[in-house]
Specification:
Layout (H helix, E strand, L loop, with lengths): L10 H15 L11 H12 L14 E2 L9 E12 L5 E11 L4 E2 L1 H12 L2 E2 L1 H16 L3 E10 H4 L10 E8 H4 L1 H13 L3
Parallel strand pairs: 2-5
Antiparallel strand pairs: 1-4, 2-3, 3-6, 6-7
Length: about 200
C-alpha cells in the first residue's frame, strides 16, 4: 500500500498513539498528571510539524522591484529555529544565516525566515534542511547566488547515545556566485561572523 493511499490520521488516533507510548515507557496514562497529556502532545505535534501544511516557496512570490538599482548582497543572520531529527524525533535547535545576490527584485526579509521555518517544521536532517532553503530561494527568486549556513545542536546526540554536550553541527550550501566566486563566498562568511563580534 502506497503511503499516499493511506487514510489520514485523526486527533483520536494520534492521542491513542501517545497513550500507547506512555504505557510502553512504563507509565499509567490514566493517572491524574497524564490524563490530558495525549491531547497536549497531539497539539504540540500539530505546531511542531506545521511545515507540512505550507509551501515555503509561496513566501517568496511577492517581491519588490523598486530598490533603486540595489544589487549587493542581502544577508539575514542569526535566525533561530527549532526542528526535529527524522531518525529519533528529537529536537534540533539552532540558527541559520541566509544570503543572496539579487538580480532585479528583492523579497521582504521576514520571508527568508518564513522559508526556513516552513522547512524546519518538518522531520529533518540538517544537511537536507540547508539544501532545501537554498534551492527554494534559487528556484523562486533566480538570484545571482545564494548562501545558507546552519549551526545547530542535535538532542539525539546530546541527550542519548554518546551524550556529548556543547557540540554543534555546521552545514552550508552555496549556489551560483556564492559557490563560483571565492570573494563573494568570503564576503558572505565575513558578514555572518561579524554579527557576533
Amino acid at each position: 500500500m502506497d503511503k499516499h493511499d493511506e487514510a489520514p490520521v485523526d486527533q483520536a488516533q494520534a492521542e491513542a498513539a501517545v497513550r500507547t507510548l506512555l504505557r510502553w515507557a512504563g507509565e499509567d496514562p490514566s493517572r491524574e498528571g497524564l490524563i490530558d497529556t495525549p491531547k497536549r502532545v497531539a497539539r504540540a505535534y500539530r505546531d511542531w510539524f506545521s511545515g507540512y501544511q505550507v509551501d515555503p516557496a509561496e513566501y517568496l512570490r511577492r517581491t519588490f522591484e523598486e530598490v533603486a538599482g540595489y544589487d549587493e548582497m542581502i544577508v539575514l543572520r542569526d535566525i533561530e529555529f527549532e526542528s526535529h531529527c527524522e531518525h529519533h524525533m528529537a529536537p534540533i535547535i539552532g540558527r541559520a544565516h541566509i544570503g543572496y545576490l539579487p538580480t532585479d527584485k528583492v523579497v521582504g526579509i521576514s520571508k527568508l525566515a518564513r522559508v526556513l521555518e516552513g522547512f524546519a517544521r518538518r522531520f529533518q536532517v540538517q544537511e537536507k534542511l540547508t539544501a532545501q532553503v537554498a534551492h527554494c530561494i534559487e528556484d523562486v527568486l533566480h538570484p545571482r547566488g545564494v548562501g545558507v549556513v546552519i549551526e545547530a545542536v542535535h538532542q539525539c546526540m546530546t541527550t542519548r547515545g554518546v551524550h556529548k554536550r556543547g557540540v554543534s553541527m555546521v552545514t552550508s550550501q552555496m549556489l551560483g556566485a556564492f559557490r563560483e566566486d571565492a570573494r563573494t563566498r568570503a564576503e558572505f562568511m565575513q558578514l555572518i561572523r561579524g554579527v557576533r563580534g
